[in-house]
Amino acid sequence: MRSRWIAVVALAAVAAAPETVVVKREGARVMKAPRFFGEACAVVIMPGQRVRLVEQRGSWARLASPGDGKCWLHESAWVDRKAGELVGNPATASQRDVELAGRGFSEAEEQRFRGEHPDLRPDFAIVEAYLVMAPETPPAELARFVADGRLGGGK
Amino acid sequence: MSRRPFALPVAAACALAGCAQLSGATGDYLKQRGIENATRVAQNTATAALTGEFSKSASFSMEQEFYLGKTIAATVLARLGGRAFLPDHPAARYLRDVGTVVALAAAEQRAEGDRPYPMKGYRFIVVDAPQVNAVGMPGGFVAVTTGALRAVRSEDELAAILAHEVAHVQRGHVMWPVESAREQEHITSTMLAGTDDLVHAFFGKVVTVGSDFVLDKGYGKSNELAADAFAVRILAGAGYDPQALGRVLGRLQGKAAQGGFFSRHPPASERVEALAASPLPTRPPPSQQRVARFDAGVRSLQ
Questions:
Q1: Per-residue confidence of chain B (302 residues) as pLDDT tens digits?
Q2: Contact across the interface for B70 and A110, Cβ inside 8 Å
Q3: Record: contact B74-A145, CB cut-off 8 A
Q4: Looking at domain A17-80, does it have CATH number 2.30.30.40?
Q5: CA distances from B170 to A18, A78, A151, B163, B260 (A)
Q6: Which residues, 6+ apart, have CB-to-CB distance to B246 below 8 Å?
């Protein structure tokens, strides 16, 4: 019986242990409650920033800071997938084999592709214009859009 | 996710065997090279099997997906054939607002195995083209034609089309063909390590053609139906009418046959039937503001 209590206490300690995560995505929303369709906290977090989580509720976590422990971040801000390591067998592969097998996608790869396809220059320009000028609707504007349209799933 | 990692290696072995069969016509040199190549492939295969090379994953991080998606988006814009509206066009801004609601409602319902949220968030691009068309791409790029914007009759129907495309992106349907092609390429190059460059070039071409075929063909019937089912949940979560997807599908049934990316989908009648199998909740009518902004954002195109 005693060992069972020790196990329960240990599990509770693990569950309550603060976790630090690294923000990966741009434009992550920091909210006053654990939901997207509500009021946002007046703070900004940037990719690469480390944040400490003090409480988790479903896919949401309450931050130690910024926001003085009153703001929530969705896991989509930090959850990533590790890239597969396809590097070929170095014992038998040539450099070209390794390049072929491990080829990922990066800014350098994109530049190489663009160099080979100059006809796509206007289309890349449009994509980049949207990247710079049309990020997802900012929180304050979105709150108005949701309220005007009676959206948000009744939350 | 079904994988056939040995399909290309087997084809490679067959091709190499073919090289050996040609030896009578091309001389002893080619015969000798054919035998050496076949031996090398056999050795590579055994080594790769022992070292676990065949079981390696080809998963992409959100950064890799972004750069891939950006390149695919530029290519798809070119193939759609119309110029894209600038991001500050009223229709583009409206599409962005509806799309953001849909994307966040989808993220709220994230499941194990979903792709990470796009590194820079979603981008909803309006393309001035008459066909009724919409496509979700890796990295969160979603293109919608003016033909599709003119075909919808409410914000809820527009949200339904976007929810279907966002579902493809979040569930990873748009990345599976790419990851699969990359794995095939890895296996092929591992097996053919040290063989003739000509053999490499041949198989590199096969892999490229194969991945193009898979990308153009679409995500498969089961993924399309799964995207519809998830789209309905996204609509419900966002506060849109979940029945809007069935409505717009039923009405676009004839137009889907015109071609474009919609032609990849199973017949609309089949999709409507699948959606009807589960009872959908009804919603109160949209607010006046929702109707008015739809008229301003989309109807102004006409």
A1: 333 444 444 444 444 444 444 445 566 777 777 777 777 777 777 776 666 666 655 577 888 889 888 988 888 888 888 899 999 999 999 999 999 999 999 999 999 889 999 999 999 999 999 888 888 888 999 999 999 999 999 999 999 999 999 999 999 887 776 666 666 666 776 677 666 654 544 433 433 443 353 346 667 788 889 999 999 999 999 999 999 999 998 888 765 545 554 556 778 888 888 888 888 887 888 999 999 999 999 866 86
A2: yes
A3: no
A4: yes
A5: 28, 15, 21, 10, 22
A6: B272, B275, B276, B280
Chain B residue numbers touching A129 (CB-CB < 8 A): 86-87
Strands B141-145, A72-74: pairing is: unpaired
Residues B133 and B201 in one domain: no
Statement to judge: residues B21 and B167 lie in one domain = no
Number of domains in chain B: 2
Chain A interface includes B137 (CB < 8 A): no
Residues of A in contact with B115 (CB under 8 A): 81
The reply to whether B104 touches chain A by the CB within 8 Å rule is: yes
Let me know whether B39 and B81 are in one domain: no
Cβ-Cβ contacts under 8 Å for B282 (sequence gap 6 or more) = B241, B243
Residues B186 and B151 both lie in one domain: no
| Same-domain status, B85 and B100 | yes
Which of B59, B83, B117 is nearest residue A84 as measured by Cβ atoms? B59
| Closest CB to A86 among B63, B186, B240 | B186
Judge if B131 and B184 occupy the same domain. Answer: no
Contacts of B97 (CB under 8 A, 6+ apart): A137, A141, A142, A145
Task: Say yes or no: ipTM exceeds 0.95.
Answer: no
Nearest to B56 among A85, A97, A124 (CB): A85
Chain A hits for B138, CB-CB cut-off 8 Å, are: none
Give contacts of A31 with chain B, Cβ < 8 Å. Answer: none
Q: Domain range holding B115?
A: 62-174+220-301
In chain A, domain spans? 17-80, 83-135
pTM of the model: 0.79
Q: Kindly report the backbone phi and psi dihedral angles of residue B143, in degrees, each rounded to the nearest multiple of 5, phi listed first.
A: -105, 135
CB contact under 8 A, B239 and A151: yes
| B128 shares its domain with B226 | yes
